[in-house]
Amino acid sequence: MEGTRSLVSLSFYGLAILAVLYDLDLGPNDFGVTWYVTRTSKSVVWVNAVSFLVTSYFVPILAYRFKRTRGIILSMAVGFLAGLGLLMIPTASVSLTIVVVVVLGLASNMAFSLAMALFNIKTDTSEQTAEISGMAQAVGYILAAFGPVGVGYLQQLTGSWNLPLILLLIVVVILTLAGLAVDRRRTIFD
User: How far apart are CA 6 and CA 11, in angstroms?
Assistant: First the structure.
């Protein structure tokens, strides 16, 4: 793969994995500590897992059927923006928290499911699929490993969730742009 195409493709896959790891790791912990008691937080984690099931089933089917994934990518971006925007509203409402968890769960797993589906959709041969999958997952998981730690560090450093959430909004914008760039090509190798 050539430079710019490799960077764009790896950015999409890496940031998709980062989004899922943030949602699975820090999200429920933040909710459990700041918004409500532990019993409720366990229920919210379960709701998050159920939202993952929905996108894990439907996103690959839609991506394979339509080949162009612009609608999925834009839906993912809207979900992230709405969820992160709602996180900025201070509340003790369990109902709002559940809405935020479902929206972010749908958006983050939409990104991850689409990234996994694109390994096959945007390649012509099994060798190309193995090449992009191996590179993207290796780079993506390395990038994603620093996400939850970095977000937690920023929160500890600033004493506020504002900067980490703004950083995540920037990640969502980059993820969306990278996804749209990947979608424009017939294959990653074109």
Answer: 8
Residues 15 and 175: beta-carbon distance below 8 Å: yes
User: pLDDT tens digits, residue range 13-54?
Assistant: 566 656 655 554 444 444 443 444 445 555 666 777 777 888
37: left (phi over 0), alpha (psi -120 to 50) or beta: beta
Structural domains of the chain in order of their starting residue, each with its CATH number? 3-184 (1.20.1250.20)
Residues 159/33, Cβ–Cβ less than 8 Å: no
Amino acid, res. 35: W
Q: How large is the C-alpha radius of gyration of the chain? A: 17
pLDDT tens digits for range 39-50? 555 566 677 777
Secondary structure percentages of the chain, helix, strand, coil, to 5: 85, 0, 15
